[in-house]
Amino acid sequence: MINAVGRDIPESVLAMGYEPYKGNGSRDGQLLAKQGPHTRICEKPQETKIVESIREAIVKCGLKDGMTVSFHHHFRDGDYIVNMVMKEVVALGIKDITIAASSLGSAHDPIAQYIEDGIVTGIQTSGIRGRMGEVVSHGKLKTPAILRSHGGRVRAIEEGKVHIDVAFIGAPTADEYGNCRALGGKSDCGVLSYAVVDSEYADKVVVITDTLVPYPNFPASIHGINVDYVVKVDEIGNPKKIASAAARMTQNPRDLMMAEATAKVMAATPWFKDGFSFQTGAGGPSLAVNRFIEPLMRERDIKMSFAIGGIAGPICELQRKGLVGCIVDTQDFDIGAIDDIRTNPNHYEISASEYANPANKGAFVNKLDFVILAALEIDTDFNVNVITGSDGVLRGAPGGHPDTAAGAKCTIIVTPLTRGRMATVCEHVVTVTTPGDTVDVLVTDYGVAVNPRRQDIIDCLDKAGVKHVPIKQLQEKAYSLVGRPDPLEWKDKVVAILEARDGTVLDVVREIKPFQL
Amino acid sequence: MIPRPKPEKFRLRRTMMFMNAQKPGLIKDAYIYGADSIMLDLEDAVAENQKDSARFSLYHALTTIDYGDTEVIVRINGLDTPHWQEDIRVAVAGGADGIRIAKTETADDVKTVEAAVLEAECEFGVEEGRTLLMAAIESPKGVLNAYEICTASDRLFGVAISGGDYRKCMQVKPVPGGIEMLGARANLLIAARAAGVQCFDTVFTDLDDEAGFRAEMQQNKDMGFDGKSLINPRQIQIVHEMLAPTEKEIAQAEAIVRTIRENAAKGIGVFTLNGKMLDVAFLPGAERVIRLAKASGLYKGDL
Amino acid sequence: MELKTTGIAGTLESSDVMITLEPRTSGGIALDLESTVLNSYGRQIKETVLATLDRLGVKNAHVAVNDHGALDCTIKARVECAFYRGCQYDVDGKYPWGGLIK
Fold first, then answer.
1. Is A177 left (phi over 0), alpha (psi -120 to 50) or beta?
2. Is the residue at C2 inside a domain?
């Protein structure tokens, strides 16, 4: 069945109970009965929930074949938790496990082996990279991987589409009752936003920390009332990879050029006024936009009411200069952001639900004015791909991309026209991860294009004298530079399902056919 | 082959950026940075054992990439190497707008290159006289012979001082304020103006020292240089910004151009504008300001 | 002009392609292709390499192509350079710009 972005959703996927994507906001107004967990009553006092080892915790939780475990990705490429836990699960002979993580990355290459061995038979995540991405793309995972945005994941858990049997929550600090904080330990990560929904909806919750602190560990990001067991290990992760060195502003002239053009686009729209709200990504040109809106803000004497994300040092800098009201944080990318949330009373942690859940009564993304995002590919319908590379292998993550794009009044994609020999602006993206009906403006090093759906933005840019061209022109320029690419070839097997944030299906990824000359 | 417009001898050349012809990743869209000229280098940027390879890259880069309004110059190897003749053949065959002669010391150097360029134009069916020349002066002898070099050929649109080699010959190091370069800069500027050609200053190599770059550029502007050689796209915008005329200068220039034209139509050659005496000698300067203003995106009028 | 020895041109840098051209006495052109953009441009890279060799009059050779996203103009330049090096042509001799080299 062809969905609202023109992708063919196979019968096998519809048979799983999925509906094809119908367009942005199609579930608005529907009623929802949330599916709570089955938890154990702990009426009698117990002094501590600490157990000796991860293995003991797994056994006590009664993890069995066929169950679903979950993890968060606040430790990014420095995470040790997933690998430590899965090693014990495998050693205990438990199999047929589904891993439902908020994201997975290159730190989790060992999982690829478990997939090939048939021990891990299901993956639900935002990101999938490295060896794991390769084995899934080559059809080694028993069931199709399910890829969701951050907001979509929360909705899926609350709706009961994902049932988490045991959640494993890595915490920089925890007390003996399971109150967790993301600060005060050896490997601080700033916030634990993605793990909140796991703590509230999983049947069993295990906290893993390398720094035990006195009870009560308040203000807590994860509350002990939801926690079954606490385990102390030597190291939860590599602090240098959890908190990377301060994100530096790019010096690349091309990135700076695009960032400046983006700031000009923003300034031409009516939403660039006092009290506006803003989100940037962490990549080169997106982050550099912070630098170029500063003079424009000063010129017009306007301030941001809130900045949200994905927080890195530069936006904290902007706040210290008095240009940002408050920072609302779902993840910290660098040490600058972590140090800031430690001491700044106007820098708040929010949960993934508050950030981007489409099924609650109004997440932050609904109040967002501008979001600046990157893309691997964007097609002439403004559909964006952030997950499949030019070789058809999974190596990316929707993350908050689809959520912010859907909510923001002005969604801007910033990307060079070509990367090496790959055309970023193409006729059809390999995989749709963010639907074109939520994407408004494209800024490249060869010009700006506006989605024809947004006549209001077109009028603003014309009035302000900001040049723009039809996206088809950019796509043709890209192909004239690098040549028209041959289409990728696929086998029949569906290896991954791209859910839209509301749970309908945006696209599927099939097993890649090896290239034959 | 992408047809290129005929090279213009006295076009704007505020920024002339060096690019290594051997780096495909960089040159394929170098022109998007907006330099007035790009100099594809066959000389110092290319290792001795890669001179042949660089020519192939150059030929294809010249014939397949669309440079839009940006001028494309080729820097050939010195006349003291065995490479320069074939460098000229490939540059002309590829349709380069101009050739930069390294280490120019005498008018003969220019004439030797000019002869080879003419021969190549005939061989490759290029319109005779199309390919322009510029001379890079890198030695004290070159500085002394600046005027004869500037007048050695009709094709020669300008001279550039090449600081690195010049300083070595003079046994000096760069100092803030550039006094060690003063003699060369002054001589070249005077010679260029006397000959009616353009003059360009040398590259500033410390990419982290923006303040130092701006200081040198300001001195270049005050001394009257037409433009500057650059090695990094980041420097382009700074130069364009610093050379952009102020609103006041633009308004003045506009007034001068209009008034001279009006008066010329009435047959009046000398007149006063805002209390100052003006005649047609002021016209080229005023027109130049308007051209600069247009190039900087600042001119909204209809001249 | 005939290939006398192995000619190598290009680098393994991004947007470049390394071409290794070896003469052989018979068997036509044998092509080994590795590319970071194999799926999308493998066929076109092969066509460009073969067309360039054909234009240069190379009938029998082994060509190894190690590509990192080079555009057609770069591929041609590297194949041509490898050929002239393999022919041990004088580096500063006269080359047929616009003729065999196009």
1. alpha
2. no
